[in-house]
Protein: ATPase component (GlnQ)
Amino acid sequence: MTKAAIELKDITKEFNGNQVLKGINGEIDEGQVLAIIGPSGSGKSTLLRAVNQLAAPSSGSVVFEGQDLTKAGKQSLNHLGEKIGMVFQSFNLFPNHTVLDNVTLGPRRVKKLSDEQANQEAMHYLKQVGMAEKANAYPDSLSGGQKQRVAIARALAMQPKVLFFDEPTSALDPENVGEVLKVIQQLASEKMTMVIVTHEMHFAKQVADKIWFMDDGQIVEENDAESLFSHPKEEKTKHFIEQVL
Ligand code: ADP
Ligand code: MG
Structure:
């Protein structure tokens, strides 16, 4: 039996009367990888942002560690929010800070770690993603793949319970994709709870325990990777997979 790390109940999101999420229900399971696939504009990024409260849902609830995040006060929301890490397509590193500082900033400011403790922990995570030797480099001197690995180290340094990735390889040159996927694969083997929005279908098939196919603000189909790709139940899923595989 899997245990839900996060439960989503009837989540909707509207922008100016336009309903972008139309009632999302599901569970993000502890120690597992959920991949979200679907056409551009189907609401994948909006869903991640609604769940981690970067842009709160219009209605519905997000239950994390026994608390409904949509009803949590600001202070407990900040606290819970720190436990959901996020890695973006565009890295979002601070260009005027070194790699090391990018990783230590959060732990120093938010977790109030001493510089020494923060540096020590940051080096551990930079090693984990193979970027320790670039600790004193600035983001501009790195390849996209290296930047993304630093962004992953930065997220890990906050010791999140759950890690969200929004198309982590979409902005990369093809030759940089593999090194980032390898880091994510490694985290999966260590049973990190992750949600990955991706267009890398072969990767999704390999790494995901569960897949959601989203279209038009809804989860059209949920299944394990093998079933979803080999025996899609819904016409829409079949059509999408034929186009992207
Ligand atoms: P995906 O990540 O699957 O490509 P998004 O979640 O980015 O899809 O977008 C889903 C829909 O919501 C799109 O039609 C997009 O234009 C709309 N949308 C997303 N963010 C906003 C926003 N801040 N304001 C207005 N519309 C938005
Ligand atoms: Mg998106």
About this structure: The radius of gyration is 18 Å. The CA atoms of residues 98 and 138 lie 5 Å apart. The chain is about 40% helix and 25% strand. The first strand starts at residue 4 and ends at 15.
